[in-house]
Amino acid sequence: MTDMRTPVRHEAELDQLCINTVRFLSVDAVQKANSGHPGMPLGAAPMAYALWTRLLKHNPRNPDWFDRDRFVLSAGHGSMLLYSLLHLTGYDLSLDDIKHFRQWGSKAPGHPERGHTPGVEVTTGPLGQGFANAVGMAIAEAQLASRYNRPGFEVIDHATYAIVSDGDLMEGVAAEAASLAGHLRLGKLTCLYDNNYVSLAAGTDITLSEDRAGRFDAYGWHTVSVDDGNDLAAIDAALQAARAETTRPSLILVRTHIGYGSPNKQDSFGAHGSPLGADEVRLTKQNLGWPTEPPFLIPEPALVHFRQALARGARAEAAWNDRVAAYADAFPDLGQELRRSLRGELPPDWDADIPIFPADVKGIATRVASGRVMNALARRLPALTGGSADLDPSTYTALKGFGDFNPPDDNDDDTQGSAGGGWSHGGRNLHFGVREHAMGAIVNGLAAHGATIPYGSTFLIFSDYMRPPIRLAALMGLHVVYVFTHDSIALGEDGPTHQPVEQLAALRAIPNLTVIRPGDANETAVAWRVALETRDRPVALVLTRQALPTLDRSRYAPADGLRRGGYVLADAPDGRPELILMASGSEVSLIVSASERLHAQGVAVRCVSMPSWELFDDRPQADRDAVLPPSVKARLAVEAGAAQGWHRYVGDTGDVLSVDRFGASAPGNEILQHYGFTVDNVCARAQMLLAERRETSASPVNSIRGASLKLGDAGGHKVPA
Ligand SMILES: Cc1ncc(C[n+]2csc(CCOP(=O)(O)OP(=O)(O)O)c2C)c(N)n1
């Protein structure tokens, strides 16, 4: 048994002491919580120890130091492994937090959560996501290095590491991301694969028999195998080989044993997700020569060794600060730009080129307006970077002339699909290929990395393919922008497989995600402003394929009303409506036309644009009541999507013109007719509501029926403050 009081004499002895400290801190925490995953930390502790004490560039006193290496525990269920490393190396995570692992108020939650625990880069747990986040981080590093570094001034120079598990490699999102990472030649990305042949419910012999190294070789990765996960020298050598490899990402396949050291549970799925049990903890400690008491033992020599990270980290950060200062002297403009991007600030006048779209009855699609706005932003906003899942020509998301992110020596002859500006790791146009899921997770990695404002784009229907990372972006509060186009049955001929119905409702159900469906080109411009100013959560822009009239804002309320989520476009005389029509996106122009007809029929109608429920719900009650006065019960919402949720705004007595079945294959206009999205039908539904109101009550608002609606009159709208 290790004598904890005597100084360690040999380096190997100290290594072993440190590794076992990580192991049993993790095991004791899981045991005390009576919940968690002890098997993974027991097996993966040596590789984690080697990386964290010998290679990883980090400063525990400043987890936000920008040029730190990024570390992702993709196998988030092994969270105690990470918490042990964070505590031992000196991050602000106390032993008490670890003793309260998985308990209310502890900084050591069940799975690693970004923003909750200092030093946790990304929230992980849903397998595969962390792997793809790491790819995004490596892309961010490569892009920023290419933009900012100058000979002799390497201001951006860090690596990205991840520990990944069988489950990670089984998930499709990791396959997508790995394929892209290989193609992009992300040489500073290294994944350590905890290759233990056991997952949650069984050995992997019943689920996973492909040649993993061969698969990654085929993706264009550099692969190294370590036959014994306890062989530190072999792990070190593999890590060094990965570091020396600069043109391919590296996968180090480390043969480990889940639950290593546990006499009765090693190599069994029983060690995966349940505490070992008091008896087995004791037996495991005895087996590995560790004192059975006290729990949470941290031998002094181990702590001293781990805590060397503090001085090393402080030195590294200080050297970097000097480097950045010298850089800012040599390249003042770039230095200023870099510092601003690092702080996540928008440059002054970032929005100076955003176009104002002239009123136009024929109008343009909001996807086209979005494309113009993005390109107007790109020059002044270097942090803006992103792309689509092979749909740029349809989503209008290419930043023209701002380069394509690809290996520099690729694609010299074939410039198909290029946004212009050259192929390099400095390109701001990311080409995700047909990989929506990875795109979602990769943009999360870019946002978590910092100094970028990433966007990802596809058809709204395929937001379903990226729902898990959207949810995680919202959970992490990442500043990501989604550009979802082809937003309804109105997209037409592609038919029901491509026509979103329930996707808007599904996105709105995600907490902390702002969904904006602008009603015309000028609302689209404001939506982009909101998306860029909103730094603490993701924003989804939901845009049309088809052209929409650009409203004449001298006649209707300014598009800036979008900031309030819902605003009165045009009102009944004296602001006393008997009927409210509300709509988002493409249906706004429909209710505007219907309002004109109803007004001619003598109805006192208010027309409300509702581009964003989340922005609207954020307003004080009085503001919301000013838009939707509680006394007005006749309310009709019009949206070419599922009705779910609209009753919050139309109330029990209101109505929703919606799409609650699948779409159809036909030209968009025809489908809209068949589904009732016509002025005739909106007016008929509105009149029915009014008739019902008159039947059920002698409404005082009836007295203003017949007064004139001032649509078309600049003073006609009444916009709440
Ligand atoms: C997307 C997703 N599906 C399912 C789970 C539930 N789960 C947690 S760990 C795990 C498998 C664990 O196997 P492995 O990745 O090999 O980890 P190890 O058992 O080696 O710790 C599963 C299915 C999850 N966390 N994420």
List the helices and strands and how they pair.
Elements: H1 11-33, H2 39-54, E1 70-73, H3 79-89, H4 95-99, H5 129-148, E2 160-165, H6 166-170, H7 172-184, E3 189-195, H8 212-219, E4 222-226, H9 232-244, E5 250-255, H10 278-287, H11 300-330, H12 332-343, E6 360-365, H13 366-378, E7 384-388, H14 392-395, E8 404-405, E9 423-424, E10 429-431, H15 436-449, E11 453-459, H16 467-476, E12 481-485, H17 503-508, E13 514-516, H18 521-533, E14 539-542, E15 547-550, E16 567-570, E17 579-583, H19 587-600, E18 605-609, H20 613-617, H21 621-627, E19 635-638, H22 647-650, E20 655-657, H23 668-674, H24 679-696
Parallel strand pairs: 1-2, 2-3, 3-5, 4-5, 7-10, 7-11, 8-9, 8-10, 11-12, 12-14, 13-14, 17-18, 17-19, 19-20
Antiparallel strand pairs: 6-15, 16-18
Helix pairs in contact: 1-2, 1-3, 1-11, 2-3, 2-9, 5-7, 5-15, 7-15, 11-12, 13-18, 15-16, 19-24
The chain binds thiamine diphosphate.
How many beta-strand elements?
A: 20
List the ligand species. Answer: thiamine diphosphate
Structural class: alpha/beta
What summary fits the major beta sheet? 8 strands, parallel
Low-confidence stretches: 699-721
Average pLDDT confidence is 94
Strand proportion: 5-15%
Q: How are the strands ordered across the major sheet?
A: 9-8-10-7-11-12-14-13
How would the global form be characterised?
A: elongated
The count of helical stretches stands at 24
Distance between the termini: 74 Å
The helicity comes to: 25-40%
Radius of gyration: 29 Å
Description:
The chain has 721 residues and is α/β, with parallel strands linked by helices. The strands form four sheets. An eight-stranded parallel sheet has the order 9-8-10-7-11-12-14-13, sandwiched between helices. It has a five-stranded parallel sheet with strand order 1-2-3-5-4, sandwiched between helices. Helix 18 (521-533) links the parallel strand 13 and strand 14. The longest helix has 31 residues, at 300-330. Residues 37, 39-40, 75, 77-78, 125-127, 165-167, 171, 194, 196, 198-200, 258, 272 line the site of thiamine diphosphate.
